[in-house]
Amino acid sequence: MKKSIVILTGGGPAPGMNTVVGSIAKTFISNGYRVIGLHGGYKGLFSKNPKYSELDFLMADSIFNRGGSYLIMSRYKPSPVDFEQNFNIEFFKENNIKLLVTIGGDDTASTANRVAKFLSEQDYPISNIHVPKTIDNDLPLPLARPTFGYESAKSEGARLATTVYEDARTSNNWFVVCAMGRSAGHLAFGIGSAAHYPMIVIPEMFNKTTITLDKIIKLAISSIVKRLTLGIEYGSVMISEGVFHELDERELKESGVIFSYDDHGHPELGKVSKAHIFNELLESKLRELGIKTKCRPVELGYELRCQPPVAYDLVYCTELGIAVHQLFDEGKTGCMVYIDNLGKVEPLFLKDIQDPKTGKIPPRLVSLESDRVQAVINNIMQYITEADYEAASEFLSNPAEYDFRKVLKWQ
Fold it and tell me: Whole-model pTM?
C-alpha cells in the first residue's frame, strides 16, 4: 500500500494555514506519498468515521494562497478516556500513515506528542512534526523569528486601524481599539505603531506595577489631554486584550465580564467586546473630569485571522511546508519545524522551550528594552509628562496622576 501522511489543523486560524498545508502536500506528493487532510482537528482521530479529504496536487495548488483553512479546525482536546476508548488506530493502519503533521499552537503540539506516544505503545510508531502558528507571535522561537500569520494579521490590522484613525480625524472623536493577543502585546503594539496611535497599552508595560482598569483609563486620558494641550481633539487608543489576563478577580467583576473557557482552560476573550468595556469606563471618567471628548469602541479580532496571507507569509509558510519533508526525511520526530532568517531548517523540540516545572511553553513577550519599542514609546506615542503639568492643569486638577511614566511606575 502507498505510504501516507496525515495533516490536521488545531486551534484558531491564522493567515498562511493553507499555504503550509498546500506546500506540505505538493512536496510529499512529488516524493511519492499520499496526503490525507483531516477535518475537525483531533476530533477526527477519536471518531469511528473521521472526515477527511485526499489532497492531490490540483487541490493543493488551488488553496495555497487562500486565507482561512481548507481543513476544518477545532480546539478539541482528547481526554485520557478518549485515548482508552475512542482512538481510531485503524485509520492509521488502513491508510498506512507514516507521519502525523499538526499545525497549531503549543496545545496542538502537546497533544501531537500524546498521540505519537500512544501509537508507539500500540506497536504502531509514527513520526510527528508540528508547524507552530499564532497571530499573537508569542511562541518563543529563536532569534525573534515571528510565528507565521503574525505579519499578515498585523498588516490587515494596520489597514483597519488606519481607517479608524482617519475616522477619528474626520469627526474629531477618539476611538478605543482592542486587538487580539492572549498573553502578549505584539499584535497590538505592531498595529498601533504602524497606524501612529498616540497611546498603546499592552500588558508588558506594567512590568513595575499591577494592571488595573483605573491605570489603563488613566493612560488613555493622559494621551487625550496631552493632545488637547496641542490643540488636537482626535485620536485613538490601542489596547491589547492580554491586559484582561492580568486583572485580578475583583477587577474582572467590576468590569462586568463573565468569561467562558475553551477545552484548554483559556478564557474565550473573543466572546466579549473588550473595546466596549474600556470605552464605557473611559467615557464615564471623562464625564467626571468635565472633558467633552466623544469615544467609540472598535474590536480587532476575527477580522485578522482568515485574510489571504501577505507575501512575507506566503514565502515563510512555503518554506515551513517544505521543511516538514526535510525533517521527516532526516528521521526527526516529536519536534516543531523552525527556519532561521537565512533559511536554515532545524528541529525545535518542545522540551527545549517548555518550562521544566510546569511543562508549559512560556509566552514570548514584547521586549520593552528594545530600541524599536522605545523609539515608538518616546517619539510616536503622546502622553503627559512633568513638562506638560502647567498646560494640562486646564483640563485636570491633578495632572501628575495622569503622568504616563508615573502611572506605570517607570519613575
Answer: 0.91
